[in-house]
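Sequence, please.
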């Protein structure tokens, strides 16, 4: 293989995955699925073989079977923890039990998957694990849960402003208790990072932190996802399933964007908070919920209550200890610290030297009001790094992507807030199109640079009206797109958003 072809393969790789399974057919099947999706995957037949391989080579994700000779999956995960292996771990098993699932997550596993599973389930779980790896979420390696310094950068929680110092002080007060925490803040402020900080400083830090994205739940499956179900409880329930509350036993659960849960399920969640018990769907067996509950929302819950969309009694059960996250526009020089952090991250992801911002670019960022908060800042910095043609990023490069660039000091009223969502969609589209142009339409390379999965990227492109040039998705060399239009600025009138 030539040096050029090795570079192309490296650029096209979404991440490195090691599959450990003594069943050859199952192992090769998983490897084939992952390679088709754009990952660099390889496999070994035992944990004993895998340990020296992991000592010598860096992998982003490790997928391991539970039942294996010589060393089973749980013993393997414990060994990874002792050796400080930073990879995210997924356990796949046909013998799932409550004890093994909980123990795997206690040892640091990201999640588990029951056999039989479909291709989409596997790809989505690996993509989520890889994203956690990229944003700094610790794997099974010892993470020093009791440490939380004032300049903590675990997972990107960066900032020294008075607002952030006050937030850290409150986290230190709240974390050692077992009280329910309600984390409030605008979209993009870092609510999940705060939840992880609370858990890391808690007495439950050795237990799992299980996160559930409530907007992704359908009303039909939400109860099963939270509390589990018994075989035959409903059509398609072919096996028992462990719910998130049970997986989080001994640790904590984060209900992300809790206002998206519908009212009937809110009443069942209220019972869990009141009585600390629940029943799996299709079962009359009452189980204890030994779990700390944290919830997050970007909405005004009192407004939701007044509109009849959220239960008032549930609100008071959740808001035992509220934590309010400051918007980025109120964090002063944290914008500069975060900018430097994202410049470093972009350099690592793109595998190129770090770029710098000119003085006028930094002044522009400091004056902007950031309706999309930290997430918007990260998107703009990443986009600038992808599009940069030299070693410096100037204000002129960034200004077209900002809302109201000629009136930066104007307060962000209702009209600006309403426009912010569309603007972020436009920025996302421009970033995706520009990244594809940089990599000559190669979806694997573009997805890796953007930090998203190939399927996610393909879905975005379909919504923008682009179509694959070929249906041979299994061949990375053929994953090219139809000719792309020239990237346009955020103000273009013919924009189509995803």
């Amino acid at each position: 293989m030539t040096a050029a072809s090795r570079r192309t393969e490296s650029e096209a790789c979404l991440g490195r995955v090691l599959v450990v399974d003594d069943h050859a057919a199952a192992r090769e099947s998983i490897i084939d699925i992952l390679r088709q999706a754009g990952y660099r995957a390889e496999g070994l037949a035992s944990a004993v073989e895998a340990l020296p391989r992991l000592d010598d080579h860096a992998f982003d994700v490790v997928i391991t079977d539970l039942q294996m000779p010589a060393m089973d999956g749980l013993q393997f995960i414990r060994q990874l923890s002792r050796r400080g292996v930073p990879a995210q771990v997924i356990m796949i098993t046909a013998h799932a039990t409550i004890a093994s699932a909980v123990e795997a997550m206690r040892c640091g596993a990201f999640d588990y998957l029951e056999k039989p599973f479909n291709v989409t389930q596997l790809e989505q779980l690996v993509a989520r694990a890889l994203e956690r790896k990229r944003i700094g979420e610790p794997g099974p390696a010892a993470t020093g849960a009791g440490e939380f310094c004032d300049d903590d950068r675990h997972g990107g929680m960066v900032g020294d402003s008075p607002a952030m110092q006050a937030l850290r002080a409150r986290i230190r007060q709240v974390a050692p208790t077992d009280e329910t925490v309600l984390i409030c803040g605008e979209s993009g402020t870092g609510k999940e990072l705060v939840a992880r900080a609370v858990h890391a400083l808690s007495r439950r830090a050795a237990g799992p932190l299980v996160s559930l994205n409530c907007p992704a739940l359908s009303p039909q499956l939400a109860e099963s996802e939270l509390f589990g179900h018994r075989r035959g409880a409903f059509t398609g329930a072919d096996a028992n399933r462990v719910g998130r509350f049970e997986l989080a036993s001994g640790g904590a659960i984060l209900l992300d964007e809790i206002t998206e849960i519908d009212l009937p399920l809110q009443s069942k969640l209220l019972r869990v908070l009141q009585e600390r018990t629940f029943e799996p769907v299709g079962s009359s067996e009452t189980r204890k919920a030994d779990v700390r509950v944290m919830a997050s929302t970007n909405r005004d819950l009192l407004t939701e209550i007044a509109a009849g969309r959220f239960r008032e009694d549930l609100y008071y059960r959740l808001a035992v200890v509220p934590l309010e996250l400051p918007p980025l526009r109120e964090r002063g020089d944290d914008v500069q610290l975060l900018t430097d952090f994202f410049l470093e991250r972009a350099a690592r992801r793109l595998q190129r030297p770090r770029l710098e911002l000119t003085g006028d670019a930094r002044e522009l960022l400091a004056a902007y009001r950031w309706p999309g908060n930290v997430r918007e800042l990260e998107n703009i910095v990443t986009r600038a790094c992808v599009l940069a043609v030299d070693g410096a990023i100037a204000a002129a490069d960034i200004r077209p992507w900002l809302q109201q660039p000629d009136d930066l000091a104007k307060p962000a009223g209702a009209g600006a807030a309403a426009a912010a969502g569309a603007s972020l969609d436009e920025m996302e589209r421009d970033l995706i199109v520009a990244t594809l142009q940089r990599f000559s339409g190669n979806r694997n390379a573009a997805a890796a640079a953007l930090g998203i999965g190939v399927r996610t990227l393909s879905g975005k492109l379909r919504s923008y009206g682009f179509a694959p040039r070929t249906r041979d998705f299994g061949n990375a060399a053929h994953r090219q797109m139809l000719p792309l239009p020239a990237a346009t600025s955020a103000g273009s009138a013919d924009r189509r958003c995803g």
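The longest strand covers residues 88-93.
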